[in-house]
Write a structure and sequence with these properties.
alpha+beta, 7-stranded mixed beta sheet, elongated
């Protein structure tokens, strides 16, 4: 029984359930271990290997998430700040939502890995979260999900309705580009060029009117072009100009690693920034400064000047 072909999609599933890439890897490892131990009891006449694995993974996730606090983004915890000079004090006691490193795993369905949507799923009770992902994202039948959760089809359909209603309140911006949207990538490329040049007016011109900027593990966040721009002015005043970026994707959304200018001419990793593009403008920028996120994306901590090409 070869279980490895299912690892990537199971990691994506456990990520949607847990909101943490590192935790998802651990949950899948536990799933694989349980499946290997139970391989002699597997009955091919009752379910495919894939369906059987998802049942095990769901049970692993539900056990792990029992009594756990949800993983939020700063915008899910309170009102936006209006003070661009507010102290940037990290809150390490909060289990922050993490982005999904696309380059690590080949996953077919990436749209449902968007940060805003995964954050909305975190509000759901764990069983509703499982029903929503299994039915809406992975397209298992209600009967299959009922079997995986040890419940009835009626209970699955009821949980799905409640989950849909709760997630509908998340307020995702309309017109979000697909993962392969060339227009979205071009907007972020232009943003990156302005960012490298510390050109705040150019950055602001690429934003929606109510664009959101948030920075876990710092719990404060900003909404709107004015406060976004004022905060970016502060960043460049503190860290100087002449930045470098490396483009990548996270959960199907365009992203880049931002490298601040170093004292000896090189660049040092500063943040990972994940963008939501809607209607040809940037609607949200989630800026991560957690070393564990850097580790998940396998980002070099430093790059030399000869490695940097503007706009790449």
């Amino acid at each position: 029984m070869d279980l490895e072909p299912y690892r990537s999609e199971l990691i994506a599933y456990c990520y949607r359930m847990s909101g943490s890439f590192h935790e998802a890897e651990d949950l899948v490892q536990e799933t694989m271990l349980r499946a290997w131990k139970a391989r002699e009891r597997y009955d091919a006449s009752r379910a495919s290997v894939r369906t059987w694995l998802y049942r095990i993974a769901t049970n692993v996730c539900l056990t792990a998430l029992e009594g756990r606090a949800r993983r939020p983004l700063p915008s899910g915890l309170g009102a936006p700040s209006e003070n661009p000079g507010a102290p940037l004090t990290p809150a390490f006691d909060i289990p922050w939502l993490q982005p999904f490193p696309d380059a690590r795993h080949d996953v077919e369905v990436r749209a449902e890995l968007r940060l805003a949507l995964v954050a909305a799923m975190q509000v759901l009770p764990a069983r509703q979260r499982a029903v929503l992902v299994l039915r809406e994202v992975l397209e298992f039948s209600a009967a299959e999900v009922a079997e995986q959760l040890g419940t009835t089809v009626a209970a699955v359909n009821s949980a799905l309705q409640r989950a849909r209603a709760a997630v509908a309140d998340v307020g995702d911006p309309g017109g979000i580009g697909e993962p392969d949207d060339a227009g979205a990538r071009e907007v972020v490329r232009r943003y990156a060029l302005a960012f490298e040049a510390a050109d705040v007016p150019a950055l602001v011109r690429l934003l929606t009117d109510d664009a959101v900027l948030e920075m876990p593990p710092v719990p404060l966040w900003y909404r709107g072009r004015r406060d976004y721009g004022r905060f970016m002015e502060r960043v460049f005043e503190m860290r100087g100009t002449g930045w470098a970026v490396r483009h990548l994707t996270a959960g199907g959304e365009p992203a880049f690693a931002a490298y601040a200018p170093g004292p000896e001419g090189g660049f040092r990793l500063h943040t990972l920034q994940v963008f939501t593009v809607a209607g040809g403008r940037i609607a949200r920028n989630v800026v991560f400064a957690d070393p564990r996120v850097f580790e998940a994306f396998e980002l070099p901590l430093e790059i030399s000047p000869d490695e940097f090409v503007p706009g790449r």
